[in-house]
What we know:
Elements: H1 2-9, H2 23-36, H3 41-66, H4 82-90, H5 93-124, H6 130-140, H7 149-158, H8 165-189, H9 193-201, H10 206-214, H11 219-235, H12 238-243, H13 252-258, H14 267-299
Helix pairs in contact: 3-14, 4-14, 5-8, 5-11, 6-8, 8-11, 8-14, 9-10, 11-14, 13-14
Amino acid sequence: MTAALAEKNSAPGHAVRPGAPPPSSTRRTKRERAFDDVPRWQIYLPLGVYLLFTLIPFYWMFLFAVRPAGSTSLVPWPMTGEHFSKVWNERSFGLFFQNSMIVGIATLIATTLVALAGGYALARFDFKIKGGFMLALLCSQFIPGALMLVPLFEIFKNLQLINSLVSVVIAETVFQLPLSIILISGFIKNVPVTLEEAAWVDGCSRFRAFCAVVLPLLRPGLIAVGSFAFVHSWNHFLFALMFLSEQDKQTIPVGLNTLIGADSVDLGALAAGGVIAAVPVVIVFAFIQKWLVTGFSAGAVKG
Length: 303
């Protein structure tokens, strides 16, 4: 078949002119030219509409947070900080913010360390139940957290961890581990094992070779996994609501829920609390967006 194709290409009707670009390059050039011929408004208009629908809710929340109570202006002027002062001081949002930060950072560290160990084992070792274990990790992603509330509550009650931030950290870490292990495993598979073998020949132990050779190359994956764990634990409402009943142990999502009364809602205070809750997440993604995209895409290449 190869000879036939070669004969066909060498026929007079299919002769290639000297210096002419290959057919694949010609097709690629035509596609690029076709994309360049598209009017720019056909690209920018859908993007603008999408951006508008995305930013309007954030602007609306910011508007209620900074305009005076009773105002109906659609422009945030004059601006006031009374709502922020109210939720931070009178509604204990300073304490809620501290608790959420503790839970988020602890979950980040615990998830990253355990996922690093589990991902390395899946990427570098072969064992009989490896396929079944990977399948179990994938299937665990379809289990809602609400189904595990009763057994988790009983376990934490027996361990005397109810009304402790440790219970929320453990629950968040457990539910973040399956996806994190899969991502880290895929990322480690992209690191050639020959790099580790060269370090072993030089006298390094497996742990030292991992720390010196593999770990520096995993930075995008670790940042992706850690940031995902932090943001999820920061925004998660269910576990904090079920395992923390004392007000001084509650987190920001539960604190926002306390601003909603049975008969009325303080929209200014609720919007100010929403802005406080969104600021850390926006800062995290603003600084790590490049690493986040690189980490998730690299970890998904090989599973």
